[in-house]
Design goal:
Largest sheet: 5 strands, parallel
Strand order of the largest sheet: 2-3-1-4-5
Low-confidence stretches: none
Helix content: 55-70%
Distance between the termini: 13 Å
Structural class: alpha/beta
Mean pLDDT: 86
Shape: globular
Radius of gyration: 16 Å
Number of strands: 5
Strand content: 5-15%
Order of helices and strands: EHEHHHEHEHHHEH
Number of helices: 9
């Protein structure tokens, strides 16, 4: 099963992807995590992405698609995977479709985490405080200014995917503003319905 989570930055895609991964035993493919790992490693891709990510911008399709193509060829993706943060644009969605078709695969379900934008900044600020309190390092893009830039990019580039996947009859929407366990339960119901359809 190939699943995708869709929603603006701070919507909880990473948290829910991890929970689905544990429930279904599918790897969570977070382009953000893969890019941050590349940045930390100082790889050529990481150095290119570092400045763009710190400013809240989107890295190039070429970089992201290359990372995804390599990753889904690994053995742990044979039974499926969860896409978290990819695709971000209609061009990436088309490239992903082409990539999956070339491997005889397809997306099974897209879950949109619908959220209230006015609450996202509070959520990001809270996440930063909790990270610091736990002794961690706050992501460079976890601040209100970068979030505003990321939201503008999301609505310009990524939001059109909602209509794209709705038209392909793959989209299911859940209330991303509910507490984490409730969001997880809603997603579980979507997946149960999907698995027994």
């Amino acid at each position: 099963m190939i699943l995708m989570l869709l929603g603006p930055p701070g919507a909880g895609k990473g948290t829910q992807s991890q929970l689905i991964s544990e429930r279904l035993g599918l790897p969570q493919l977070s382009t953000g995590d893969m890019l941050r790992a590349a940045v930390k490693a100082g790889s050529p891709v990481g150095l290119k992405a570092k400045k763009i990510m710190a400013e809240g911008g989107l890295v190039s399709d070429e970089i992201v698609i290359g990372i995804i193509a390599d990753r889904i060829s690994e053995p742990d993706c044979a039974k499926g995977f969860i896409l978290d943060g990819f695709p971000r644009t209609l061009a990436q969605a088309d490239a992903l479709d082409d990539l999956l078709k070339s491997k005889g695969r397809h997306i099974d379900c897209v879950i949109e985490l619908k959220v209230d934008d006015t609450k996202l900044i509070e959520r990001i600020e809270c996440r930063a405080r909790e990270t610091i309190a736990a002794g961690g390092t706050v992501r460079a893009d976890d601040n209100p200014e970068a979030l505003k830039t990321r939201l503008i990019a999301y609505y310009r580039e990524t939001a059109p995917l909602i209509g794209f996947y709705y038209a392909h009859r793959l989209l299911k929407t859940v209330n991303g503003m509910a507490p984490i366990p409730e969001v997880s339960q809603q997603i579980g119901e979507v997946l149960n319905h999907f698995q027994h359809a």
